[in-house]
Amino acid sequence: MAQLVLGIETSCDETAAAVVRLENGKAQVLSNIVASQIKDHSPYGGVVPEIAARKHVEKIDDVIGLAIREAGVELSDLSGVAATAGPGLIGGVLVGLLSAKAIALGAGLPFIAINHLEGHALSPKLTQDLDFPYLLLLVSGGHCQILKVVELGQYKRLGTTIDDALGEAFDKTAKLLVLGYPGGPLVERAASLGNPKYELPRPMINRPGCDFSFAGLKTAVSRLAQSLENEKGELSNECVNDICASFQAATMAVLLNRLEAAFAMSELTGNNRRLVVAGGVAANQAIRSAINELCESFGWQYFAPELKYCGDNGAMIALAGAMRLEAGITSDLHTKARPRWPLDEISAPLNLKHGYGKKGAKV
């Protein structure tokens, strides 16, 4: 039986809704609407939670309505309504969650609360045939984890960042170098024009396990930029490009080293040796290429979502909802929004081999 699900995503600064049909294991995206808040947050160099929540309130009705119209369906055609219930900025999460609950209640439809990270974990399935189990590298502005995805709803964390997420390090590097917002694509663009000639630290490389750390690398970039500015008077475009290239090279070295360790820790063998790279940072072409080459050298299959599904979107939430609905899993309308929600509940609280930063590890 086909599942037709409306998915709503408002965990950060994208107001998104989509309709996805799931039939015989194949997903079809009927609509995928994303309203960006980049212009609203650009003056501040990052996401301002209060502004994000207010913009979600302003846009959510129009975004949902457009998603339904573009899909060419009516509410009565839907099998269920799914929404991100966390983790994320609590004000934004509440907007999408309450909207989904209202639609489900009013239309008499099942409601499915989705972990935002599960949406990313399943996102390649929107356009590709991908079987369970697989290894997942989840890299975004708020998270950097390696997990073993056993099946829907069963996840085992193998490694995580002990301080900053990788996307956060990209954004803060961009802010430091006055590149603008959002920082990730701008650092990637500058890196493509530069020479990775500066030696920057590669935190955690060759240590036991596959945890990450990026706070020290971010600090090293700050000190390098300050040193060059003191020496030259100001940072030229060439200097900025070289710093970005050196930063990106260091992050890729860390990712590849940690993935090599994860390959062994995953205990996946034969045709099950599949790696999925998902999340906003998965849109970085240099990182995608480097990880693809790593997989080829180790005999692993490589999967990544299409670029439009790397960032936050409603389609991945709708797919996760459809898969859960197909498995007979629904949620209570009293489900609460969660600012923190580990994908692998059994691994929380974290038991990190190398400790964690003063603000705690990202989950």
Notes on the structure:
- With about 375 residues, this protein is an alpha/beta fold.
- It folds into two domains: about 5-125 and about 310-330, ATPase, nucleotide binding domain (Nucleotidyltransferase, domain 5); about 135-305, ATPase, nucleotide binding domain (Nucleotidyltransferase, domain 5), CATH 3.30.420.
- Helices cover about 40% and strands about 20% of the residues.
- It contains ten helices and ten strands.
- The strands form two sheets. Strands 3-2-1-4-5 form a five-stranded mixed beta sheet, with helices on both faces. The protein has a five-stranded mixed beta sheet with strand order 8-7-6-9-10, with helices on both faces.
- Strand 6 and strand 7 form a beta hairpin.
- Helix 2 (about 50-70) runs parallel beside helix 3.
- The longest helix is centred in the last third of the chain and has 30 residues, at about 235-265.
- It starts with a strand and ends in a 37-residue tail after the last helix.
Give the strand line-up of the largest sheet: 3-2-1-4-5
Total beta strands: 10
Biggest beta sheet attributes: 5 strands, mixed
Helix content: 40-55%
Mean pLDDT: 94
Determine the number of helices (DSSP H or I, runs of at least 4 residues): 10
Distance between the termini: 35 Å
The secondary-structure class comes to alpha/beta
Estimate nothing, just give the exact number of structural domains: 2
Oligomeric composition of the shown chains:
single chain
SSE run: EEEHHEHEHEEEHHHHEHEH
Indicate the overall shape: globular
Which CATH architecture of the largest domain?
2-Layer Sandwich
Task: Supply the CATH superfamily name of the largest domain.
Answer: ATPase, nucleotide binding domain
What is the CATH domain class of the largest domain? Alpha Beta
What's the alpha carbon Rg, rounded to whole Å? 20 Å
- CATH names the topology of the largest domain as Nucleotidyltransferase, domain 5
* Fraction of residues in β-strands: 15-25%
Low-confidence stretches: 350-362
